[in-house]
Write a structure and sequence with these properties.
This protein is about 25% helix and about 30% strand. By secondary structure, it is an alpha+beta fold. It has one domain: Aminopeptidase, CATH 3.40.630.30. The chain has a seven-stranded mixed beta sheet with strand order 1-2-3-4-5-7-6, sandwiched between helices. Strand 2 and strand 3 form a beta hairpin. The longest helix is centred in the middle third of the chain and has 15 residues. The C terminus is likely disordered. The structure holds coenzyme A. The site of coenzyme A has 20 residues, from strand 4, helix 3, strand 5 and helix 4. Keywords: Acyltransferase, Transferase. Belongs to the acetyltransferase family. MAK3 subfamily.
Length: about 190
């Protein structure tokens, strides 16, 4: 059944950071929310790969009325060794907002929280891929300062192309090779 989009949010949402003690309660809901928009669902191991190591970079939006999960962002942060010297690179792996709740700035709030958490941990850049036809995602990331670094032709299993987007958090070394920035393939394993 199609979800009806809410003209206005009925109440203020609650934003919380994921922690391991919440796994039993929230992991099934995170999977359900993200799987809705994927042509091919990720296995449980993909979620655990991110949440076990970088649960502190996962934020959730809850409707306080019934504690339902209406939005989530999942990220990682690690040295990117193909840069010389290595850079500390954040990666936004998954972002989803429940259809009825879209268009109210929930994803923007989640992305901002993740950016702040990665900045606090000295991230030098944040990258992600998004489908070129995903207008809401492209709009929100470009509004937050992400730049298109590369077009990835036929990147997704459905044959669609993607853009790699990058948010630079530290001043760029003028001598750095631009070809060496944010150009590797996705680290995401299906
Ligand atoms: C992308 C997604 C997370 C955005 O969530 P959201 O909470 O609606 O996002 P926000 O309200 O913060 O911002 C969305 C932006 O897209 C715009 N937008 C929304 N729907 C749009 C549409 N159909 N066409 C054009 N722009 C649209 C909004 O106006 C807003 O931009 P603005 O603030 O500059 O006006 C949500 O649509 C979603 O879950 N999609 C499916 C999963 C997905 O694509 N994830 C991203 C993978 S990288």
């Amino acid at each position: 059944m199609a979800e009806t989009r809410l003209a206005e949010l009925p109440r203020e949402l609650k934003y919380i950071r994921y922690e391991h003690s919440l796994e039993a309660e929230y992991l099934p809901r995170i999977r359900a929310l993200i799987s809705k928009d994927l042509s091919e669902p990720y296995s449980i191991y993909v979620y655990r790969y991110f949440l076990y190591q970088w649960g502190h970079l996962c934020y959730m939006a809850l409707d306080p009325e019934d504690s339902s999960l209406v939005g989530v962002i999942i990220c990682k942060l690690e040295p990117h060794i193909s840069h010389s010297p290595p850079t500390l690179r954040g990666y936004i792996a998954m972002l989803a907002v429940s259809a009825a709740y879209r268009g109210h700035g929930i994803a923007t709030a989640l992305v901002k929280m993740a950016i702040e958490a990665m900045k606090e941990r000295n991230a030098e850049e944040i990258v992600l891929e998004t489908e070129e036809t995903n207008v809401p995602a492209m709009r929100l990331y470009e509004r937050l300062g992400f730049l298109r670094s590369k077009k990835l032709h036929r990147y997704y299993l459905n044959g669609n192309s993607a853009y790699r987007l990058v948010l630079l958090l530290k001043p760029v070394d003028p001598d750095a090779d631009p070809e060496n920035m944010a150009l590797d393939d996705s680290d995401l394993i299906r």
